[in-house]
Write a structure and sequence with these properties.
heterodimer; A: about 325 residues; mainly alpha; MetI-like fold; 13 helices; B: about 325 residues
């Protein structure tokens, strides 16, 4: 990734001075400042706009869906019916309203994207910070594991994990959706930890960390007060980009039949469309809208992620 | 030479770790003896024989030893759903996958790098913006969805291509007509995959070339008065090709696993189709074999890319 040679964020000296501010304080300052810079970049602003709309739909979905998305019908004229005033985006192979499914699917797709990215970010940060800070054998072993996860073809691994864990789905909240979050999170952290590690390696050499160590600060204190606040912006930027990838992966796994039919995401809708032969019947309203939503959200997260990355790493600005 | 030997050692280590991981994943996260019980195609006698053969009622260490000996001698397990050896199924499907993904990888590498050169040499102009945004959109698109749109538009609406399968059922084998039939069926999945892979080549080529174009020797070449195409062809592009070469050789490793959704969508009888069938029938031995096989392919491709780079780029040898 391009962020390997990241210069440390400029606020690193203020970070020590404002040590009294908690971790969440730091995070919200970072988010605040990023937000201000973000709305100045055009693509970041567009991305943010798209994301706000979809996030709103994900939250209020059940209240704005025009129909019950699970109300199937046996009237044959309502099976794969084209868009009409009653069904704005037509119906699926069971006569269910496509628009309502799309609205409720937003919540599932976004939830998996966010939650899986957070799982990746947590694992990636723990591994990256430990490897970078402790060095030696800890670093060697963690980097070897990291390398391994980077090399292994990740889709077959995710498929294998999702199939093996699939049995446990019934006893879990959110069913197979929970399994998807876990699997995508567990397979997607390797890139993050690599970036964090190199940042921590350079931070560790910096004067303020060495001074703290010389003054007898404990390792947990240094990591919490000096390392973590300074890698947080990087983690933040990376997580936004990972959300985009997680949403794509969710759609792929659901399309392959590893999703939860009773909690339909956009990918799950595409799976149903393909199984019911929607393309052969020209029922575009069934498979075009979910894909458009996926593309829009993925592009939006990517644009916002790049914009944040440029804020965190000013060197990138001149390159693009 | 020492560098290459180290790389080979690392690759072997990674392969070894895959072997161990594969074993524990399926024995610890899953329960093979219970899975056998669930499979209606296996008679109780056959199940007893399988449990005996794999040592499933013995300790983990014995099981691991049997697994290791079997796998290293190329003897994978038997598929639950077809009752044929997993290795046979995989080697039969492999040529189909290679035909599909190999062609698409090469096509996308050539077209993508060319578009990247166009974009980088016209930085900031309309063609650059168009190409860059187009690749971002293609990159953000689930490949299988692109395929669904293409099936709907090109195969169903315009009737230009068949919608799936490798050949028409009943097509006579080994004739000119057969080959033509396969080409017709392969065209649309190859087009889909090529478009899906295109974006990354555009991005890599564009940024590599943009870096090179800022170097002094390019300025010198321009100052000498060389025409633009010669500056690009003889000086800049050559130096920007390294990352592209790396990406191609890395992607060749994903040839085996890269088309799972596309094969499923087009019912193309390759590794991807095998994977989807295995998911739907919960055929764990098949999934295990596919995971092992695809991992090995990627590790070998990585090794190949590393060795290739040491010969192409002297700087790697020094560091």
């Amino acid at each position: 990734m391009s962020a390997t040679a990241t210069p440390p964020p400029q606020q690193s000296t203020t970070a020590i001075l404002s040590g009294s501010k908690g971790l969440f304080g730091r995070l919200s300052t970072t988010a605040n400042r990023s937000f201000k810079l973000l709305v100045r970049s055009k693509s970041g602003l567009i991305g943010l706009g798209i994301l706000s709309v979809f996030t709103l739909i994900a939250i209020i979905g059940p209240w704005i869906a025009p129909q019950d998305p699970n109300a199937s019908t046996s009237f044959s004229d309502q099976i794969l019916a084209p868009p009409s005033s009653e069904y704005l985006l037509g119906t699926d192979d069971n006569g269910r309203d496509v628009l309502s499914q799309l609205i409720l699917g937003t919540r599932i797709s976004m939830l998996v994207g966010f939650a899986a990215a957070i799982v990746s970010a947590v694992i990636g940060s723990i591994v990256g910070i430990s490897a970078g800070y402790f060095g030696g054998w800890t670093d060697r072993i963690l980097t070897a594991i990291d390398d391994w996860f980077l090399v292994i073809p990740f889709l077959p691994l995710a498929i294998v994990l999702a199939t093996l864990l699939g049995d446990a789905a019934n006893s879990l909240p959110l069913g197979r959706v929970f399994i998807l979050i876990l699997v995508i999170g567990l397979t997607g952290w390797a890139g993050t930890s690599r970036i964090i590690r190199s940042q921590v390696l350079s931070l560790k050499q910096r004067v303020f960390v060495e001074r703290a160590r010389a003054l007898g600060s404990t390792t947990p204190w240094i990591i919490r007060k000096q390392i973590l606040p300074n890698v947080l912006p990087l983690i933040f930027a990376n997580t936004v980009l990972i959300i985009a990838i997680s949403i794509l992966t969710e759609s792929t796994l659901s399309f392959l039949g590893l999703g939860d039919p009773s909690r339909a995401s956009w990918g799950q809708m595409l799976n149903a469309a393909n199984d019911s032969g929607a393309m052969a019947q020209g029922a575009w309203w069934f498979f075009v809208p979910p894909g458009v939503c996926i593309v829009l959200v993925v592009i939006a997260f990517t644009m916002v992620g790049y914009a944040i990355e440029e804020i965190v790493n000013p060197k990138l600005r001149e390159r693009r | 030479m020492r560098h290459v030997l180290i790389k080979i050692g690392i690759a072997l280590g990674t392969l070894g770790f895959v072997l161990v991981f594969n074993f524990f994943l399926f024995r610890v996260a899953g329960d093979p003896a219970k899975d056998l019980l669930r499979n209606p195609r296996i008679t109780p006698e056959a199940r007893e024989a399988l449990i005996e053969e794999r040592g499933l009622n013995e300790g983990l260490v014995t099981q691991f030893r049997i697994y290791l000996v079997n796998t290293l001698s190329g003897e994978l397990e038997t598929s639950y759903s077809t009752n044929r050896p997993v290795l046979t199924e995989i080697t039969e499907a492999l040529p189909n996958t290679i035909l599909l993904v190999g062609t698409a990888t090469l096509l996308s590498a050539f077209i993508g790098s060319w578009l990247g050169v166009v974009a980088a040499s016209r930085r900031g102009r309309a063609s650059d913006t168009g190409i860059t945004q187009g690749s971002l959109i293609l990159y953000s698109m689930p490949e299988f969805w692109l395929g669904m749109i293409l099936i709907w538009l090109l195969a169903v609406t315009l009737g230009l291509f068949p919608t799936g399968l490798k050949v028409n059922p009943g097509q006579e084998f080994s004739s000119v007509g057969y080959v033509w039939n396969v080409i017709q069926h392969a065209a649309l999945p190859i087009l889909t995959l090529t478009l899906g892979l295109l974006g990354q080549y555009v991005v890599i080529m564009r940024s590599a070339l943009a870096d090179v174009l800022n170097e002094d020797f390019v300025t010198t070449a321009r100052a000498i008065g060389l025409p633009n195409y010669r500056v690009l062809r003889d000086h800049a592009v050559r130096n920007a090709l390294l990352p592209v070469v790396t990406l191609v050789s890395l992607n060749l490793g994903f040839v085996v696993s890269g088309a799972i959704t596309i094969e499923a969508l087009f019912s193309w009888p390759g590794i991807g189709q095998l994977t989807v069938d295995a998911i739907n029938t919960k055929d764990l031995p098949m999934l295990q074999g596919i995971f092992l096989f695809t991992s090995a392919a990627v590790i070998i491709a990585n090794l190949f890319a590393d060795i290739l780079l040491t010969y192409l780029d002297p700087r790697v040898r020094v560091s």
